[in-house]
């Protein structure tokens, strides 16, 4: 009997084992409460201890009620005081370090893989294109199963891209451009379909917005996304509030995910409490569903085995750790991921920006004068207190927000390195570095604004209409 149990357990995922331990613990409590015979209680306890041992052997972690395996838990769960300096979830990013989050620690604790030189070189060989500067500079720094995507591509098998945007305000800031600029590059070099989810339902649930206002923001944000230059024949943008009701494939996948994730799991992964509305608790399944090609029958001709690649910021990873655990149990392929670092607030890398704070970032609606004022007034400096000290000791690029922003938006590698050397040596002053950033962002945002003016409501409607794209499946 014990051998049979052990044989069964070795085929269970960490999450399934966690569920078995939880269920057995509840059974033991029920037996004790019901004053069951001692031998029956003892047998149930032995089973519980055996399950806990299997759980520890499989995960390397002691079972803790309400806390799923650590690779499915937020960064703040079960950490030591030293590790607890960084807090990351899909809604908040906080660190006490002026350099920002320790991404090497985050890779270890989230259980992802570092994007190393070998992987970057392989992407270059596969595409025949120079890697994007986001890859070269470690802005996209972590991945899950990118090697599988490249295996498929090298064997002439297709995949598709999925990314998204939570439309919490009418105006987007420059940090919001990062996943879209990179996704556009990926779409161009690999020539694959792209779906973009606008989670207006999420913003209705989390923010003080009406459904009408959330949907309006979704359409406005779609204009900024389209202005990045996406190909209408290869890209489908959808609002959850709009698309979910019209796609049986999408809703079927949501229900399948919902059936296989418990309330205990979402509490452990996302930190939900008993007082959160049930909409929040069920929302992760909605963000998971676009990871499966059967959610878009009009694009993939009903095929369910097309793998998905998701470029996103690392704070969205909890959603997709959950998705990857559920996928095999509902007959779907695990999505692959590419994770970016966080775009820092002007005030420093300790927090991510807020769309509700106009001074936390440079917005896509800002005028040249506003851009100049914001950077000069609010961009955190890595310079010294006096010019004399700065000339003598140099500036700190690791904490200087102007230099961080240039890492994202100054494409010339040689020029960026020159600025780093000059600032670090003290040759370049903070005001001069800010001037370079201003002169980099002003034309970039002005060009984006011009492209956005060309995006009509009719064009948005075309992008958001479910349809066949320019691919055969």
TrEMBL record:
GO terms for molecular function: ATP binding; tryptophan-tRNA ligase activity. Keywords: Aminoacyl-tRNA synthetase, ATP-binding, Ligase, Nucleotide-binding, Phosphoprotein, Protein biosynthesis. SMART domains: WHEP-TRS (SM00991). Residues 13-69 form the WHEP-TRS domain. It comes from the Eukaryota. GO terms for cellular component: cytoplasm. PANTHER family: TRYPTOPHAN--TRNA LIGASE, CYTOPLASMIC, TRYPTOPHANYL-TRNA SYNTHETASE. This is Tryptophan--tRNA ligase, cytoplasmic.
